[in-house]
Specification:
Helix content: 55-70%
Strand order of the largest sheet: 2-1-3-4-5
Distance between the termini: 50 Å
Structural class: alpha/beta
């Protein structure tokens, strides 16, 4: 009860009117329900009271027309009660009605009308604040690791992409560190998983206390942390890593007298003339981490350290790298030739040229754009584009009369059409040259809620390339004429359908990304 009274005392109503008697009536009416409420009138809408109101009341006999529009716009999200003269005036002001604007008449000021309007707006405001708080909490859960409080692996990749773009744009240094508790499995085995979790949580606290506010921490794997260090070169990253290593090495397990301490392996990488993008940076750091793990005790290595170590070994490392690069080029060329031959062979079939080719090209285009806006690397974006070109290849095995049927398909016809992703895989076979494309082709009709086909996968168990293709195909189908619907949907209507399918048919995160892409 005390909380309710305290909350009522915090309720402030500003009344834009010249009529003091209305202000007194409003205060008298609302005090019965909200003891301690304040109602203050003012006349100059350009100079409102200093404190923001809980609810704004406006006398439309005093303020109307363009001045009223200006006042409502200035109030932003503040709830508003418009007081009109009588019921005959309500219709003239009904255009202002919304979730934050209510209408009452002058007679309602000393009755239930004002109480109901105030309660309705305050309750909606409370629910809106609660919704924003819940939304913020859910967003944090989606990007953070629950045990450590650090960003999760997925969000780390997004942040790293952003930081690399900034560093390259402004020609500023950037370093990353990937560190692993090398003997984490031993700790779990000796002391149990609860102790292992405690070590990870304690390690995250120590890392957090060791780095700068601008540095970014993430949980990269079960026993791995990743750090993004803006404005840091290799020397600076090494100093930070040494501090982290010293802090974590002092974690006292203190169980059964066993002398076990966390042992860290750390890999460092920095942007340079030869390391310019995310794949290069991560590859360098992970390579350094792998070399560090091969050393018996705690080790901190960078690309320069690895190069220095390689000079001491006997194998011809230069020859190995040259041959590896040459074979990689040969493989890429063979893959490119294979794909071109495959598309050429399929493209000779009249059905593809007439019904499917243009659709597939558009789907490939939108899918690649969505993948790029999602921050995916160039190689993956190209694979998604290729999958888009081939995603409907399985329809070549279906009677064209079924594909062009303007009426509703029979149950048997629907079942046949829903098998076209499987037919596509049977046509192309399990070729290693299409290892990235085949999962996207097979699963592009799966639904995020698990009600799709052919395997009824759900959520993130659906390959992200397939989730991207699903949105791209749905968009093209809705915005172009179809046998069963000659008039395409407008872009706004199609976007509304995509949003309606968020978390049901489509990945909600990709829906938001696609909306930003389409609406610009």
């Amino acid at each position: 009860m005390k909380d309710e009274i305290s909350a009522a005392r915090d309720i402030r109503i500003h009344f834009l009117t010249k009529r003091d008697e209305l202000t007194e009536k409003a205060l008298k009416t609302l005090t019965h329900v909200y003891p301690g409420i304040t109602v203050k009138n003012y006349e100059d809408y350009k100079n409102p009271p200093a404190k923001d109101p809980s609810v704004e009341m406006i006398d439309t006999e005093f303020i109307c027309g363009s001045s009223l529009d200006l006042v409502i716009d200035q109030l932003g999200v503040t709830p508003v009660i418009l007081m009109v003269k009588d019921f005959a005036s309500v219709r003239s002001y009904s255009k202002y009605l919304s979730s934050r604007v209510s209408l009452i008449t002058e007679d309602d000021v000393d009755g239930m009308g004002l109480i109901q309007a105030t309660h309705h707006l305050l309750e909606r405001q409370r629910l809106h604040k609660q919704l924003r708080k819940t939304s913020k909490h859910l967003k944090e859960l989606s990007i953070k690791d629950e045990l450590t409080g650090f960003f999760n692996n997925r969000h780390f990749h997004e942040l790293l992409t952003s930081e690399i773009k900034k560093s390259n744009r402004y020609k500023r240094p950037l370093a990353i560190v990937i560190t692993s508790i090398k003997n984490f499995s031993t700790i779990n085995k000796l002391f149990g998983h609860n102790e292992g979790d405690r070590v990870m949580a304690k390690s995250s606290d120590l890392i957090r206390s060791t780095i700068r506010d601008v540095d970014i921490c993430a949980r990269y794997g079960d026993n791995e942390f990743a750090l993004i260090l803006p404005e840091s070169n290799e020397e600076g990253a090494r100093i930070v890593t040494k501090r982290i290593n010293d802090a974590i090495a002092d974690i006292d397990l203190g169980t059964c007298g066993r002398d076990v301490r966390p042992i860290l392996s750390c890999g460092i990488a920095t942007l340079s003339a030869s390391v310019k993008n995310k794949d290069d940076l991560l590859g360098t750091a992970l390579g350094a981490l792998l070399e560090a793990k091969r050393i018996g005790e705690t080790a901190i290595l960078s690309a320069d350290d690895i190069e220095a170590r390689r000079r001491t070994v006997r194998e011809n490392r230069q020859l190995i790298e040259q041959l590896s690069e040459r074979i990689s080029r040969i493989t890429k060329e063979a893959q490119r030739n294979y794909f071109q031959s495959l598309v050429g062979a399929i493209g000779e079939i009249p059905l593809l040229k007439k019904l499917l080719m243009h659709h597939s090209e558009r789907v490939a285009f939108f899918a690649k754009r969505l993948a790029e806006s999602r921050g995916m690397d160039e190689s993956t974006c190209k694979a998604i584009y290729r999958a888009g070109l081939l995603h409907d290849a399985g329809k070549l095995a279906i009677d064209p009369d079924i594909l062009t049927k303007p009426d509703k398909l029979s149950f048997a016809e629907q079942e046949l059409v829903q098998r076209h992703p499987v037919f596509a895989i049977q046509i192309m076979g399990s070729n290693s040259f299409l290892s990235e494309e085949l999962p996207a082709i097979l699963h592009h009709h799966e639904r995020y809620d698990g009600n799709g086909y052919p395997e009824r996968l759900s959520g993130e168990s659906i390959p992200i390339s397939a989730r991207i293709l699903g949105i791209a195909e749905a968009w093209d189908v809705m915005t172009t004429p179809q046998p069963y619907r000659q008039e395409p949907l407008s872009m706004d209507a199609a976007m509304a359908e995509i949003e309606k399918g968020s978390a049901g048919q489509f990945d909600p995160e990709l829906v938001d990304c696609f909306k930003d892409l389409v609406t610009g």
